[in-house]
């Protein structure tokens, strides 16, 4: 089991965290605006391509040190196991809460937007940009800041504490409406934390996050 300390070296600034949070909060604005204003297909196409290019640039800048050296087969294994784990936890939470289960405000807003217009721009944001930014923020940058608070603790322990505390913020950022919706996002983040921690690969957690969002979009497409 590898430590994450090598991934947390460097200068971590609160202002950088604020900028990342703002990007998470308002990154979907162009896509949502295009839906609400009924923009032409050409404009929507430009926004969609813009998301793809911005995601690529984000990866080139912020993921350049996070190479995935596991190989294609092992990468696929991690993605499959991670996906099944998220699905299993979601199913168990649904069984436990039953009729008391409800969706978060974030999920409700997404479903309403997609019901109004299954926009490729919004899908590009959900599948490409959002996972890339959220994984870097909550599985790398923010834990790096928290980790400095626990300097005297065991290195392995403070890695775990930092990632778990960041995951709580990750769940809260999705605006849960009750304990169930909080646990849905916390369980999603927990699997991503374990992928990040056990493989020491930020790229793998980002890939898994994108895969989960993609499958969710496909399910929503047929459900709506």
Automatic annotation (TrEMBL):
Q: Where is the signal peptide?
A: none
Presence of the UniProt keyword NAD in the record: no
Keywords, A to Z, come to:
Hydrolase, Membrane, Metalloprotease, Protease, Transmembrane, Transmembrane helix
Is tRNA processing among this UniProt entry's keywords? no
InterPro entries attached to this UniProt entry: CAAX_protease, Rce1/LyrA-like_dom
Q: Where is the CAAX prenyl protease 2/Lysostaphin resistance protein A-like domain?
A: 120-215
A GO molecular function assigned to this protein is:
metallopeptidase activity
State any GO BP term from the record.
proteolysis
The family database entries (Pfam families) matched by this protein are listed as: Rce1-like
Transmembrane regions listed in the UniProt entry: 12-37, 43-63, 75-98, 118-138, 159-176, 182-199, 206-223
- Protein name per Swiss-Prot or TrEMBL: CPBP family intramembrane metalloprotease
Q: Which organism is this entry from?
A: Anaerococcus porci
